[in-house]
Amino acid sequence: MLTQDEIKQLVAKQAAQLVQNNMTVGIGTGSTVYWLIMELGSRVKQGLFFRAIPTSKKTATLCAQQNIPLAALNDVTALDITIDGADEIDPNLQLIKGGGGALLQEKMVAAASRELFILADETKLVRQLGKFPLPLEVIPFGWKQVQRHIQATYNVKASLRTKDDQPFVSDHGHYILDCPFNKIEHPGILTYDLNAIPGVVDNGLFINMADMVLVGYADGRTETLQNNTAES
Ligand SMILES: O=C(CO)[C@H](O)[C@H](O)COP(=O)(O)O
After folding, report:
1. What number is the average pLDDT over the span 149-177?
2. For residue 229, what pLDDT is reported?
3. Fewer CB within 10 Å, N- or C-terminus of the chain?
4. Is the CB of 84 under 6 A from ligand 1?
5. Which residues are catalytic?
6. CA distances from 10 to 36, 210, 219, 222 (A)
7. Does residue 80 have its Cβ closer than 6 Å to ligand 1?
8. Full-model pTM
9. What percent of the chain has pLDDT above 90?
10. Nearest CA owner, ligand 1 atom 8
11. Distance 110 CA to ligand 1 centre (A)
């Protein structure tokens, strides 16, 4: 049986084969994507040339260490593909992302891509989104107002994400509120409602964005799930 980390390596290795010469590729953030970057680094050593648009400072640093050429989102008109991880994936391939705090840049890069390809180990598949606390990226000014709004509207206790006993600060200088909705009945509606709250920059729901999910299982199998439904 494979460990979770070995499953991440397995799917990352397969996904790295999607990258072809001269492509512009969005590179996600997280422990699964770490293995993707390592694999792409080896392919670059063997002569592959592509441009990476990183979704976080962490990913940019890892790509640079692997000699993967980087470009900024503003330097390109469109990306061929973005490969990223996810925190939860429902049967319609709706996602919760942002466990690593990079949701804003991840969503912008994914939105500019012709295809969003998600890598996951089987623990990320859920029947309904919401067990994983939904990250809300908020501006630090008046963040407690947003927290109160979430409590009053949804009866959900949003907690300020911290790191070393200090508020976690995103690459863009924002805070993150983690919101344990538990069950999200209508993610497509919730994403609009949340983003309409003053002070919210974005939320971790990725609705109708993923085209494919490559899932790895502990027994070494992998499976590709395709997006064939629209969100209710
Ligand atoms: O959204 C993300 C970062 O903001 C990651 O893709 C998500 O948290 C999954 O991470 P991992 O591959 O480490 O399980």
Report:
1. 98
2. 56
3. N
4. yes
5. 106
6. 9, 20, 11, 8
7. no
8. 0.96
9. 97
10. 99
11. 14
Region of 35 please: left (phi>0), alpha (psi -120 to 50) or beta.
alpha
Q: What is the pLDDT of residues 194-225, one digit of tens each?
A: 999 999 999 999 999 999 999 999 999 999 99
Joined together, the tokens standing for residue 27 give 């590179």
What is the Å distance from ligand 1's center to 2 Cα? 19
What pLDDT shows up at residue 161?
98
Strand order in the sheet with 24-27: 51-54, 24-27, 81-84, 116-121, 212-216, 222-226
Is 124 marked as a binding-site residue? yes
Residue 91: pLDDT over 70: yes
User: What's the burial of 142, exposed, middle or buried (CB within 10 Å: 0-12/13-18/19+)?
Assistant: exposed
Instruction: Report the separation in Å between the CA atom of 82 and the middle of ligand 1, taken as the mean of its atom positions.
Output: 14
3-state secondary structure of 140: coil
Cα–Cα distance between 25 and 42 in angstroms, integer? 16
137 lines ligand 1 (CB under 6 A): no
Angle between helices 31-45 and 57-65 (to 10 degrees): 30
Interval 83-111 mean pLDDT: 98
The H or E element spanning position 54 is: strand 51-54
Rounded average pLDDT over 70-93: 98
